[in-house]
Amino acid sequence: MEEDDPVVQEIPVFVSQALAKNLYIYQYPVRPANRDWKEVKVTNASIKPKNQLVRLEVGLDTYSDQYCPSKGEQIALNTDGQQESSWHTKEKDKSQYFKTGMMDKILYECSKPSTETRHYAVAILQDKELHCTSIQGIVQMRPSYSYYDRQDKRKSDKNKSDNSDDDEKEPEAQQVTVKFARQETDVVKKAREKSFVSISQKINEEPWYDAMWKHSDTDQAELERLKLFSMTTSDGSSLSLKAREYVRNLVPPPPDDEADVAPTKLLSPRDQIKEILLNAKLMTFSALRAMVRTEDGPLSELSLLTALDTCACCVRGLWTPRSSELYTRADPLPPRLMCAARDHVLYLFTQHPYIDRRKVAAAVRLPPADVLEIIRSVAKFNPKTGWELLIPPDVAFETKYPDVIQRQNLYWEARQRQFNEMLMGENMPKRQRKKSQRESVSSDTMMSPKPRCNSVSEEDSERKRQKNKSATGSGKRTRNASSSSTHDAT
């Protein structure tokens, strides 16, 4: 508040608790604002206390110039059907929705009231005093057209009665499926109780209870309205409290169930490192040591290095989670391929300050989107040079712990050898199955008779004929030729 802004008036504020647990605000969202609610005639009121539902029957002026009697009679006829002249039948009168034979009322119903009303109150300003009363809930009343359901039900019942031939035909046998209820667990039972079907069933099972409606001009309504004024006028200003009590009123203590809960136990250094690196992707040794805590205080450098060797790896003095911790399930590529591709990228950064995304994509043979995601997790793009690490290398750590750097370099060389072996295994041609020397027997062979062993085929005869010709031309005698000459001599 500015210094030149004077206080014009001080208004005391009082809080009334007489109706704090029973005060509800009724809203009518679809009712025109120019219609005064005081002129409304409520013929009946009902409530469901457990589900906090309200129903009001508001009468209509059937003699008004704006009311159409023929339309009202038609709606009542469709809802209740044709009524006979037996006016003395009480049971039939009870089942009627519109008692007078025409639409003479509108039904207003509400859903479950809004109970998030801790910051709402009803206030009355009188005699320069402001009296406030907190409200229990806000109820929105909307028109209910349940008589349309009665019309549909009456039509369906009429159709069934017209089509029924129970006297002439016997009922057909129907297949019945018997199901036995399974034993529910507590989780399934709670989920079933919170379902829409279960809640609707509970609401329908609770009966309506008649309530008493009092007009705002009645004496009883005036007596209830007086309870909105506070009967105590003591000064309850918080400025008169001590500092500790004032802060306690502003910040109330936690609930009993939260106060009784034991404090959360610190995770082990290894689990803390895994959680931190999975979120940060890349960190220096000093920043990581500042975030890891134990019950005795900060973690020593030697203990931190021991824990890092089990769950992290080092690239140019920077620590990052192992690929096996990042990719644990197929989404959508197998974890083995994603881990190998990421390890190849990290190995390249141990050898070069910059890498080329196109060369990486050609080497790992993964979709470009996955390759880009892997590189972006540890690097950023420099238009002049290419992809470089997210943060500058930690030269101080490399100088202080050369043995750690040497051990990590051996680790990366082993991972790169595995990557190369995997690529060589993919490039090698697959082993072909050795063909059997045994000739396969086809269907034609099975159907045809087998040739005799001493029979000579046409190919064999032709081969022998060619051999004899060549032998005759060269002057050499064959067995066949000698036999033929001997035969001629005899």
TrEMBL record:
Biological-process GO terms, alphabetical: tRNA transcription by RNA polymerase III
CC annotations in GO: RNA polymerase III complex
Name of the protein this chain belongs to: DNA-directed RNA polymerase III subunit RPC5
Basic and acidic residues: bias regions: 149-163
PANTHER family: DNA-DIRECTED RNA POLYMERASE III SUBUNIT RPC5, DNA-DIRECTED RNA POLYMERASES III 80 KDA POLYPEPTIDE RNA POLYMERASE III SUBUNIT 5
Chain positions covered by the region annotation Disordered: 146-175, 423-490
Biased amino acid composition, Polar residues: 469-490
Name of one Pfam family that matches: RPC5
